[in-house]
């Protein structure tokens, strides 16, 4: 028995399905810098701290026929090679350990260091260095040993050249003992918004965000710079929620960190 088909509808479905099957994971085919980059002058190095290794991204794996074994004891790791960077194409997508890649954060991808790890990267051509948090895998390219975020590449002077010779050094972080904690157990997280040498504008921003988001804000002074913080918060999920609201307000370089140790000494203004 012959079945009648609506030919226009049939070919429309074929076209749609073929289009879906050919589209890749990323909306952008070639990686690039952001079209309208926000200022990242105030973005600071990653803050090394002890973190348990992620459940995801820490198993031995194979890419393009080549096997990679995760370094189980990275203490003392030091390597030289070529650094590259990745940006807009991957922005907002999942990293190897399930986090969201943010090209404005100080992060990096490494083929074999455990995730997360903290490393010091030094551009051996210009002497600039930065500390980044490894939370992704790559780069899968001969001779390259680390893939930097857009912000990290900017700090190291690699954006224009695309690649540069670097030294990568693993930074060992020991688990802190609870009795030596500077803050109460509830004060686990704060959100750093900005860093500036202008106290008045910093105070204005601190008050504005506190009123807009209905959260506590404070200013910390260190090394002639004033930093705006929100918090502290005792719940990470709540902290992430506030961070998303902050970024929707346009502060894309804000990030979560531990409370600064000098908070009580250098707290210049606090709003509720």
From TrEMBL:
GO molecular function, one term: lytic endotransglycosylase activity
One Gene Ontology term, aspect cellular component: plasma membrane
Principal subcellular localization: membrane
Signal peptide per UniProt: 1-27
Keywords, alphabetical: Cell membrane, Cell wall biogenesis/degradation, Lipoprotein, Lyase, Membrane, Palmitate, Signal
InterPro entries (alphabetical): RlpA, RlpA-like_DPBB, RlpA-like_sf, RplA, SPOR-like_dom, SPOR-like_sf
Domain SPOR stretches: 183-259
Protein topology in the membrane: Lipid-anchor
Protein location: Cell membrane
Highest taxon of the lineage: Bacteria
Gene Ontology process terms (BP): cell wall organization; peptidoglycan metabolic process
E.C. no: 4.2.2.-
Family: Belongs to the RlpA family.
Function: Lytic transglycosylase with a strong preference for naked glycan strands that lack stem peptides.
Protein name: Endolytic peptidoglycan transglycosylase RlpA
